[in-house]
Specification:
The protein is of the alpha/beta class and about 150 residues long. The protein has seven helices and five strands, in the order E-H-E-H-E-H-E-H-H-E-H-H. The protein has a five-stranded mixed β-sheet, with helices on both faces. Helix 3 links the parallel strand 3 and strand 4.
């Protein structure tokens, strides 16, 4: 089962998780991380790292964030490069997450990414999709060493 880390501004992440659990019961491998104004990037990173490890059973983890480019998205992006099977999604909302609940058991993390972005388009994107538009910077030195 794919783990979920919902991370949004203020108390939106906790509200989303509580609303889902009120309707569907406890969601295994799912954590909310709220990002409050004034919270340091270091503390947010620690909180999201803890949530990542609590939700990862080996099948992958999906970071569900509210805004592309904002602190939760950036922290998740950095973490995803260090952990295989992680995907970072931005622009999430309740009805979209609700549609994705049954797919946590059956899809790979990359298939999940494709499905949620397709369903949520045009307001939903992923780190992978953003990188396809703007490929990461590669030093020429690194190309010649390969």
């Amino acid at each position: 089962m794919l783990g979920w880390v919902i991370s949004c501004h203020d108390d939106k992440a906790q509200e989303l998780l509580e609303r889902l659990e009120k309707k569907y019961g406890p969601l295994p491998q799912c954590r909310a991380v709220n990002y409050w104004r004034g919270l340091s990037s270091n503390m947010l990173s620690r909180m999201m790292c803890d949530a990542l490890h609590q939700t990862d059973s080996g099948d992958g983890v999906i970071f569900l964030t509210d805004n592309a480019g904002a602190a939760p998205y950036r922290v998740a992006a950095l973490m995803s490069h260090k952990h295989s099977g992680c995907e970072v999604i931005a622009g999430i909302h309740y009805s979209l997450i609700e549609q994705m609940i049954p797919l946590r058991d059956s899809l790979s993390s990359s298939a999940f990414r494709e499905r949620i972005v397709t369903l949520g388009s045009p307001g939903v994107t992923s780190l992978w999709h953003q990188q396809q538009k703007n490929p990461p910077f590669v030093l020429l030195h690194d190309l010649y060493e390969s």
